[in-house]
Amino acid sequence: AAVKSYAAVDLGASSGRVMVGRVGPDSLDLTEAHRFPNRPVRTPEGLRWDILALYAGVLDGLRAAGHVDSVGIDSWAVDYGLLDADGALLGNPAHYRDPRTRGVAEQVWATVPAAELYAATGLQYAPFNTLYQLVAARSTAQLAHAKRLLLIPDLLAYWLTGEAGTELTNASTTQLIDPRTGDWSYDIAARLGIDLELFAPLRRPGDPAGLLRPSVLEETGLTGPVPVTTVGSHDTASAVAAVPAAGERFAYICTGTWSLAGLELTAPVLTEASRTANFTNELGLDGTVRYLRNIMGLWLLQECVREWGHPDLGELLSAAAEVPALRSVVDAGDAAFLAPGRMPSRIADACRESGQPVPESRAEITRCILDSLALAHRRAVFEAQELAGHPVDVVHIVGGGARNALLCRLTADACGLPVVAGPAEAAALGNVLVQARAHGQVGDRAEMRGLLARTQPLTRYEPRGTTATWQAAEDRLTAR
Ligand code: LFR
Fold it and tell me: Which GO terms describe its biological process (predicted)?
């Protein structure tokens, strides 16, 4: 039977890549066609994405990929570009770490109380949710001139094909979608003066998204027609689709710049307890709900490594493994760590202020970060089970952190559950598999996951020791 090739464009906060997935009746392999840096730029107006550099990287990647049967695009969530009446981009998209949303949530809650907002949208509070970004931009000339808003993957798909749509899994991170209906929250938008007409029509993973334009074919040397297929365009939705789990009793942690830790559910959890625990109900494939918490993730380490001039990561992690466990921990869910810069001293400050030993060496700081992440993973996995009434027997770690053995081992120990690590390129694989499904090559989600479990190398970590020391560390954190 035929093998088909799919290009998966997967854009992360620090790099983008174009991967080629080859799918056969019982085979799945992934190779990298092109990887390019994603360097946000601090402009006088604020922190912005260099969207043209990203688009150039996508075109280079498609050229390097060669013939493919289809193209799918996923990226980080919440951010968008605005187009004018001619369809031209109005400025560089703002970065979700840009401080322009500071204090905006309080303003929004004065109109729609936080509890009501959660009951209607199921989205955890994060200052960067698109809703807050749009309110922050309310009186800008750019928004006044905008006729169309496209989320990042939809913007790139528009440039490639000329067709505009709003992909649902990513739309669910705007805080303007009702997770019960999968349709817009018309009432919330109206009360906050957000014009839903800015958004292109909703489309779902698997839907066709147009054909590469003639100029794009020319630019990339590809022979048409090449269709673009809608995938779970939120990278986390694609990553969850590629969790190689069997059955339903699993938790997942999508690791990378962020750790997104939680469950796949069939219905949202919109209770007040869920809101105060800051769990989010994002939408996944096939009407599923990604019930999860955003944890600051390897961002904490990436920022330290940047500050230290990029020392060898392998050596740093081996040294960290030798440092005594759980000497000091920080709250890896704390929005105080959101902005870039000075990360080692911000972590040291947090330890000092909470009366813990201050980590000094690079190894100690790294250990503090990994212990803190494992602890935050534990808390999210436990609380999600409780709030959703959905018990699990195993934790799957996918994404870049699946390659970090120390992080996986500590997470298994902290949770007292086995951890299955891999695949590291989960977002790209989920992207490929949704395209393969749309092209009739794989069946339902369970079949996609079975194919992953059979074809991808996975590492299992059994929990060691007692979880009491982790509980004690958690009590130390929450006592404050
Ligand atoms: C991960 C991610 C998270 C989202 C954050 C900001 O890459 O997409 O799911 O909360 O980036 O968009």
Answer: glycerol metabolic process; rhamnose catabolic process
Confidence at residue 477, expressed as pLDDT on a 0 to 100 scale: 84
115-138, pLDDT tens digit by residue?
Answer: 999 999 999 999 999 999 999 999
Block residue for tokens 């496209």? 150
Span 365-377, average pLDDT: 98
Asked whether this complex has an ipTM greater than 0.95, the answer is: yes
Ligand 1 close to Cβ of residue 398 (< 6 A): no
Strands 4-11 and 70-75: parallel
pTM score, whole prediction: 0.97
In the reported structure, the alpha carbon of residue 399 is separated from the centroid of ligand 1 by a whole-number distance in angstroms of 12
Chain centre distance of CA 321: 27
Sequence length of the chain is: 480
Share above pLDDT 70 across residues of the chain, in percent, rounded to a whole number: 100
Is residue 261 lining ligand 1, measured as CB closer than 6 Å?
no
Residue with tokens 């997935």, as numbered in its chain: 21
Confidence of residue 1 (pLDDT cuts 50, 70, 90): low
In Å, what is the CA distance from 236 to each residue of 106, 172, 202, 262? 27, 12, 18, 11
Residue showing tokens 């075109």: 59
**149's tokens:** 């808003």
- Active-site amino acid positions: 235
For residue 237, the CA-to-ligand 1 centroid distance in Å is: 10
